[in-house]
Amino acid sequence: MTDPLDRIAAALERLAPAPMPAPDFTAEAFVWHTAPDRLEPVTHVSRVDLSLLVGVNRSRDTLLENTRHFAAGLPANNALLWGARGMGKSSLVKAVHAHVRAEGHDLKIVELSREDLPSVQRLLSHLRAAPYQFLLFCDDLSFSHDDQHYKSLKAVLDGGIEGRPENVLFYATSNRRHLMPRDMIENERSTAINPGEAVEEKVSLSDRFGLWLGFHPCSQDDYLEMIRGYCAAHGVNVPDERLHAEAIEWQATRGGRSGRVAWQFFCDLAAREGVRLRL
């Protein structure tokens, strides 16, 4: 028969698991998980080469320079990449990380999901103690009207009494410039005792990012240039007249143009041409 004290001890361990062991930071990329806390190494990062990102030249150059500064131990700003869907916001973060690593900097990237923001202080304590520079990356960041996770994000951006770790920089992507829906902000104006203060608390979150990089719908020329770049990179040879006609038809069926639509068309084209992609 099991000793009651042993059963109680086992139950307490389940409620309060042992602290996470010191992470092995030999990999270049990690995903943060909770329950239990762990940094899962990523053996293959899904990304495209920086040269294939078309129509985002200003954002590319700004983010690349900021990341180079950080990797070299110089001051750098947290960055919010916001704007149109499918225009390469998350692809740019991953491509810039790879480019800076190729220049000789042992820069790590850690992906953090929005749902795990309440655990961010525990994550930062592990990163703070490590002898590396880390990009902390949150993709598709936004908050609904009853979401309190945005308060946890302030710990990353401002760092509380300890300050943000010097070896951690935060990059986030979002479709919203202020991270919150407009109706949520308007609701705060109409229902709060002091509307100005209520709105300021919500809107000021995005103000904590030193860099705002906007992404806007691409032109037809940029759309076609993206596809030509993919064809050249992967060895898909198609006459330009045919490529132009099929690409325009594809985007018409999708109701818009973007980097994502260009990639989806290219995948279909490569399959029809019998070309395997080297991802």
How does this model look, in words?
It is globular, with a radius of gyration of 22 Å. A 7-stranded mixed sheet has the order 2-1-4-5-6-3-7. 45% of the residues lie in helices and 13% in strands. The chain folds into 2 domains: 29-215, Rossmann fold; 220-272. The longest helix is centred in the N-terminal third of the chain and has 15 residues, at 57-71. The protein is of the alpha/beta class and 279 residues long. It has helices spanning 4-15, 57-71, 89-102, 120-128, 150-157, 182-191, 195-207, 220-234, 240-254, 259-272; strands at 29-33, 38-41, 79-83, 107-111, 133-138, 168-174, 211-215. β5 (133-138), α5 (150-157) and β6 form a beta-alpha-beta unit.
What Rg, in angstroms, do the CA atoms define?
22 Å
Assembly of the depicted chains: single chain
Annotated CATH homologous superfamily of the largest domain: P-loop containing nucleotide triphosphate hydrolases
Averaging pLDDT over every residue, what do you get? Answer: 84
CATH topology of the largest domain: Rossmann fold
How many angstroms separate the termini? 56 Å
Question: Given the structure, what is the number of helices?
Answer: 10
Structural class determined from secondary elements: alpha/beta
Residue runs with pLDDT of under 50 for 5 or more positions: none
Give the CA-based shape.
globular
CATH architecture of the largest domain: 3-Layer(aba) Sandwich
Largest sheet: 7 strands, mixed
Q: How are strands sequenced across the largest beta sheet?
A: 2-1-4-5-6-3-7
List SSEs in N-to-C order: HEEHEHEHEHEHHEHHH
Q: Which CATH top level class of the largest domain fits?
A: Alpha Beta
Relative helix content = 40-55%
Number of domains: 2
Q: Count the strands?
A: 7
Report strand %: 5-15%
